[in-house]
Amino acid sequence: MDATIQVRQRGMFTLPAELRERYKIKPGDTFRLVDLDGIFVLTRMVPLVPELAREIERARLEAGLSVEDMLKALREQRERYTADKYGPSEE
User: What is the reported pTM?
Assistant: First the structure.
């Protein structure tokens, strides 16, 4: 596709509707602009946190773990790590 766009006030421009529809671009989507010696490349920024959260939740469900089980295991692991690195607790 070849399109002409015009930069407006405050440096804004509008992507053609055909591109927005084809690539499912919605208001609020974030892109990275890469300047390759005067050739501008826009690449979609994928929000990693929600994607990682979904992956962790999927793995938790597959393993049959509750959130409480995971927190308990995390506390135990942290205690072991702290003891290995700094010595046993003086409790």
Answer: 0.49
